[in-house]
Amino acid sequence: VGRKNDKPARVSYSYDGDIMDKEWLMDGEKYERKNGRANYIEFFDTKLTNGRKNVKSVEIWFKGEKEHRENDLPCSIEYHENGSIKVKVWKRNDEYYIRPDNQANVIRYYTNQTKKREEWLRKNNEFYRSGDKPSKISYDEKGRLSIEEWLLGGEEDYFREDESKAVKIMYAYRDEFVVDGREAKVRESKQQPDIVPQADNEDNENRND
Q1: Which of 28, 50, 104, 152 is deepest in the core (most CB within 10 A)?
Q2: How high is the pLDDT of residue 2?
Q3: What residues contact 140, with CB distance under 8 A and at least 6 apart?
Q4: In whole angstroms, what is the distance from residue 158 CA to residue 170 CA?
């Protein structure tokens, strides 16, 4: 299976005749396309894009049948319906790897392209980050730190070598406080001075005793 001139070898259509996905194959395997383009692309249903056709939902780069991309470029990019990036994933030969400067392996974005979450992973999709740093970091839509989590393994496998330290820290901002069911009228908070850390270990509950 394959086509010349960098045309997709397989194209799937919906009942309405809209393109659902495209796949580039040569001799039955996905191959490296010209200009580094993805060799598998999915498209949104037009019902989700107000009738706009051929709006990409996912792009994936394969080497053979494994997700792979060189030069520390994301091997998978998922998009929001408006065309902005939703998720980027970095893998080589289907495995997460240590990126330059230990950057996150998965980065999720809000529709305004502000980072939503960063995740550090290793083999078997398990969370891991060296240096006692959080392996999952969440942000609010303004780009401010929201939650830090120290995970080693699955979504619920919290771990820190120093058991006296919190494994999950949540941050609150003064402009988010609510009074009598209404948002409190306070000035826009600055990032650092207005952070109120909330550690979820038992020791934190007794700090003010």
Answers
A1: 104
A2: 59
A3: 146, 173
A4: 15
Q: Is the dihedral of CA 81, 113, 143, 138 positive or negative?
A: positive
Residue 45: count other Cβ atoms within 10 Å of its Cβ: 13
More confident residue, 139 or 4: 139
Provide the percentage of residues in the chain whose pLDDT is more than 70: 82
- 56: closest CA among 23, 34, 78, 38? 78
Three-state SS at 13:
strand
- Pairing state of beta strands 106-109 and 85-89? antiparallel
Nearest to 9 by CA among 29, 21, 23, 20: 23
Strands in 10-13's sheet, in edge-to-edge order, are 10-13, 19-23, 40-43, 56-60, 76-79, 85-89, 106-109, 115-119, 136-139, 145-149, 168-172, 196-199
Higher pLDDT, 34 or 131: 131
Asked whether 68 and 92 are in contact (CB, 8 A), the reply is yes
Instruction: Give the global pTM.
Output: 0.82
The three-class DSSP label of residue 47 is helix
